[in-house]
Amino acid sequence: MRDGYMRDDPMFIAWQRGHRDNPADRASWWRPWLTLVQEITARDVEVRRARIVSEPASDYVRFEYDITFSNIAAGEQVRWLPRHRATDLSLPGNDFWLLDGTTVVVNHFGGDGRFVDEELITEPATAKLCSSAFEAVWERAVPHEEYRPA
């Protein structure tokens, strides 16, 4: 839900300097995360990612958009929701991953976008809140193939 993360990430810095991954050269951009997603989705498990972004998009969001082809290639489904279309949605205050509808992995970031830590929550009410919020965002968000950052 942030407009920037870990701005000292070497991939982001290379992107700022003009590097673009070549979709035809899979070996140059395939990463361990993508292998895991491919293995999971091969077992017919859905991996969905929703990004809530401000418009006009920050450089970091444009970077995320540019590299999302790799997530799609691995089997993730990705959607984008412009922040101005999320005003009437109740959302958790932090980024999270919801696993099997029961476990929430909350990612905590500092004001500068640096990863601070993660928190594992199995409390049913929190999982239900995060699941409801995600489904509301997913329903309203634009599939990656149709979204263009403003």
Write the layout of secondary structure elements.
Blueprint: H1 10-16, H2 26-29, H3 32-42, E1 48-53, H4 59-74, E2 77-82, E3 95-99, E4 103-109, E5 115-121, H5 124-140, E6 142-143
Parallel strand pairs: 1-2
Antiparallel strand pairs: 2-6, 3-4, 4-5
Describe this protein's structure:
There is one protein chain. With 150 residues, the chain is of the alpha+beta class. It has one domain (10-143): Endonuclease, Chain A, CATH 3.30.870. Helices cover 37% and strands 22% of the residues. The chain is built from five helices and six strands. It is globular, with a radius of gyration of 16 Å. The two termini are 16 Å apart.
Count of domain modules: 1
How do the SSEs run, as a string of H and E? HHHEHEEEEHE
Please give the alpha-carbon distance between the first and last residues.
16 Å
Number of strands: 6
Shape: globular
Biggest sheet features: 3 strands, mixed
Radius of gyration: 16 Å
Secondary structural class:
alpha+beta
CATH architecture descriptor? 2-Layer Sandwich
Give the C-level CATH assignment.
Answer: Alpha Beta
Residue runs with pLDDT of under 50 for 5 or more positions: none
Question: Which bin fits the share of residues in helices?
Answer: 25-40%
